[in-house]
Amino acid sequence: MPDEKTIAPRSDSLGDYLKSVRLGQGLTLRDVERLTENDVSNAYLSQLENRKIEKPSPHILYALSNAYRISYKNLMSRAGYVIPQDKSRGTADKHGNAATFAIENLSAQEEAALLEYLAFFRSKRGSS
């Protein structure tokens, strides 16, 4: 992933940033359309770059981050989406971002029992 600080200075405008990155990589609007496998049309990208569209969907931002090989989190932030901070929240973090335990107020003992059952279930499923 290229160093984004060398590609473009931080701008308040997502459109200015996207245009700067695209031009810095020597890409045309049509090149980006091909790189995103038509997920982002050249017309839509032009509207983004010219501030006609200011908050594209996360899907569009993901396609652009892959095409440009830049941080998806950075694009989400520039588009105004709230990015969760990486803070330790106790037992919830050890399971990643998946909704491992949707039931609230599980005790540590209940969580341990569920994890034990899950391990048992997976071992039985694997031996079938």
TrEMBL record:
Transmembrane segments: none
Residues annotated as domain HTH cro/C1-type: 18-75
Domain of life: Bacteria
Pfam families hit by this protein: HTH_3
InterPro entries, A to Z: Cro/C1-type_HTH, Lambda_DNA-bd_dom_sf
GO molecular function: DNA binding
Annotated protein name in UniProt: HTH cro/C1-type domain-containing protein
Species this protein is from: Rhodobium orientis
